Amino acid sequence: MNCSVAQCLEVVGEWWTMLIIRDAFLGIRRFDDLQQRLGISRNILQQRLTRLVDAGILRRVPYSEHPPRSEYRLTVKGKDLWAVLVAMRQWGDQHAPTAAPPVQMVPKDCGSISEAVMTCSVCGKPIGPSDVESVPRPGYQGSDLLLPGAHP
Amino acid sequence: MNCSVAQCLEVVGEWWTMLIIRDAFLGIRRFDDLQQRLGISRNILQQRLTRLVDAGILRRVPYSEHPPRSEYRLTVKGKDLWAVLVAMRQWGDQHAPTAAPPVQMVPKDCGSISEAVMTCSVCGKPIGPSDVESVPRPGYQGSDLLLPGAHP
User: Fold this and answer.
1) Which chain A residues are closer than 8 Å to B118 by Cβ?
2) In a domain, A112, yes or no
3) Angle between helices A4-12 and A15-25 (to 10 degrees)
4) Which of A44, A48, B67, B90 is the most exposed, fewest CB within 10 Å of its CB?
5) A105 and B8: CB-CB below 8 Å?
6) Does residue A141 fall inside a structural domain?
């Protein structure tokens, strides 16, 4: 499917995978720490980590020779998932039915508790679904129906 | 799990679900159109749509009485997923290994082809993973280890 959302889902479209990436951003790098935090089986965690390494999202970095041990760090490609994670967190903060939001974000330069706002890279104004139109690019395929923004 | 990312994944953490939401933003509202575009079985599509209605992401709106037919429209809660979708699309545009990106975004007020940039809601500066720290909120649980930003 020639769709960039689908391409992203190919990599992160699995529950545990995105939570592993979340923990990687929080500095959790080692297998046992991840396993303890996520509470999943070692087998499944190992599969997901291997998949993320194969996909170029994480890389293995040795931290011990005897015994041989590696930790998992985000690559540039992995760090570029930050905006996806932030958008998910903010949606969950706003719409999660049960718990109070556990984490808030403080940009270091700013020092205030803030939210991330999506803005236009050209004019700098905030943008939302009713502010934008979608237009075809060179990779466009006729079967990918394109219509303007949201139609609530 | 008291994590807003996990809360979001509870709803959208399934491949087809996010593509249904993508299509809803593109104005694809009817069962047969969705089924044709996504190429999934009617059974699975119906399950996913019912789940999205139950989760308050889509709502059914009748468009025909004879025969009785409804279309699916995004609720406010559903429209708030726009930032997640845009972040996924931009990541896919940048890192998808195969296809050329099919769609580009033009904010109506701006008129230029642009990207969405995450900025701080307080100071307005662009923010990325190395610019922010995470701090606990009232809903914080001791088991949710909190560490500053990314540790590449």
Assistant:
1) 83, 86, 116-119
2) no
3) 80
4) B67
5) no
6) no
Residue A141 · residue A2 · CB < 8 Å: yes
Verify whether the Cβ–Cβ distance A107 to B125 is below 8 Å. Answer: yes
Tens-place pLDDT, residues A26-83: 899 999 999 998 889 999 999 999 999 998 999 999 999 999 999 999 999 999 999 9
Residues of chain B positioned with their CB less than 8 A from the CB of A119: 116-119
Same domain for B54 and B15:
yes
Best interface-test mutation with A: which of B2, B3, B5 has the largest number of A CBs within 10 A? Answer: B5
**pLDDT at position B50:** 94
- B76 with B104, same domain: the answer is no
Rounded to an integer, what distance in angstroms lies between the CA atom of residue B105 and that of residue A101? 31
pLDDT of residue B147: 41
Tell me the CATH number at B23: 1.10.10.10
Joined tokens for residue B4: 């807003």
Interface of A with B in 58-97 (CB under 8 A): 73-74, 77, 79-97
**Quick check: is B27 in a domain?**
yes
Residue spans of chain B under pLDDT 70: 1-2, 97-101, 137-152
